[in-house]
UniProtKB/TrEMBL annotation:
UniProt-recorded name of the protein: Cation diffusion facilitator family transporter
Origin organism lineage: Bacteria, Bacillati, Bacillota, Bacilli, Bacillales
Organism: Solibacillus merdavium
Transmembrane segments: 16-35, 77-97, 117-135, 171-195, 201-222
Keywords for this protein: Membrane, Transmembrane, Transmembrane helix, Transport
Domain of life of the source: Bacteria
Its membrane topology: Multi-pass membrane protein
Location of the protein in the cell: Membrane
Transport among keywords: yes
Domain Cation efflux protein transmembrane, residue spans: 16-225
Signal peptide (UniProt feature, chain positions): none
Length: 329
């Protein structure tokens, strides 16, 4: 039980906050839809419930991914978060389809009048504010995860570094960007329809919201499919390779892999060195390099071996290091 609480404590905080916020918004949007019958409100209700389910799953997956390696699973449980994200997007895909279908039905058979406009607009305004709050929290978490100092508006700045964020945080950021935009679009659709009697617009907006949800499904699916298979972190591979090559005892790198295991990185290295060095000396070199690599951001496992230098230079990457708060790792 103690281990379970420890794992839950290590779960992705933005996803848990987002899950509770979207559950609350889904309920009040459902009540608003019941009283108004507004299809744009229906789309937002489906969107909020879909995001809430997604984010609860992601929180659980991010917590379980922190479980320590076992003899049966020596590489740990890092990829669980990728598998959970793959499962979670199926929920969003189903709700996206229902949202588009309802929007198309409303476009073909629009309402002849709009009721409960004040209720709908009030709920959407509240939704916009809360979703923007969650999006800002996720943006700050992105900057924290990549080690970049916040300058200006976090939401705008974090978009540049989103690719390097953890899978769970990236999912929350993308879903809440779409959710915030969806609230705004639904608000505008209801206002315009009320003053112009162009009620088909609510159906069009519902379709747009559904398509935005499908876009998130596609992006998240591709990102986490690569992670579940075992994707190389190209940027960290070059950075780690150059760190190793700075050691005077390393002549070349015969093999280097930096594999993403969920939120973590596992490094496998075969370094070429002078064959005249003793095993005891190389053991000290390996201890030094292992400690150095484990101090790099996200690296949790290092496997290293040595081979004699063959005289041919295989490592030809230039020095490029990831940014941190001070510019370099």
């Amino acid at each position: 039980m103690e281990e379970l609480f420890k794992l839950i404590k290590g779960g992705n905080k933005p996803s848990l906050i987002a899950a509770f916020v979207n559950s609350f918004l889904g309920i009040i949007k459902g009540v608003a839809f019941f009283f108004t019958g507004n299809v744009a409100m229906f789309a937002e209700m489906m969107h909020s419930f879909g995001d809430a389910a997604n984010q609860f799953f992601v929180f659980i997956g991010s917590a379980l991914s922190k479980k320590a390696p076992t003899p049966r699973f020596p590489n740990g449980y890092g990829r669980i978060v990728n598998l959970v994200c793959l499962g979670a997007v199926l929920i969003v895909a189903i709700l996206s389809y229902e949202t588009i279908k309802e929007g198309w039905h409303h476009f073909l058979h629009p309402a002849t009048e709009s009721s409960g406009v004040a209720i709908a607009l009030g709920v959407l305004t509240l939704g916009f504010v809360l979703e923007l709050f969650v999006l800002n929290k996720a943006a700050k978490e992105v900057l924290h995860e990549v080690g970049v100092e916040r300058k200006g508006i976090a939401i705008v700045q974090s978009a540049k570094y989103l690719k390097r964020a953890k899978p769970a945080t990236k999912l929350v950021w993308m879903e809440d960007l779409v959710a915030t935009s969806g609230n705004l679009l639904a608000f505008l659709a209801i206002v315009i329809a009320y003053f112009t009697d162009f009620y088909r617009l609510e159906g069009i907006v519902s379709i747009i919201i559904g398509l935005m949800m499908f876009y998130v499904v596609g992006r998240v699916f591709l990102d986490n499919a690569r992670g579940a298979i075992g994707e190389t972190d190209e940027e960290m591979l070059v950075h780690i390779g150059n760190l190793v090559m700075e050691d005077p005892h390393v002549k070349d790198i015969a093999r280097l892999e930096v594999i993403k295991e969920g939120e973590f990185l596992h490094v496998e290295l075969i370094a070429e060195t002078d064959p005249s060095l003793s095993l005891a000396y190389l053991d000290d070199v390996r201890d030094h390099l292992t400690t150095l690599l484990l101090n790099q951001k996200g690296v949790t496992k290092v496997t290293m071996a040595f081979d004699e230098d063959d005289g041919d230079r295989a490592w030809k990457h230039t020095v490029t290091k990831p940014e941190t708060e001070k510019g370099m790792i």
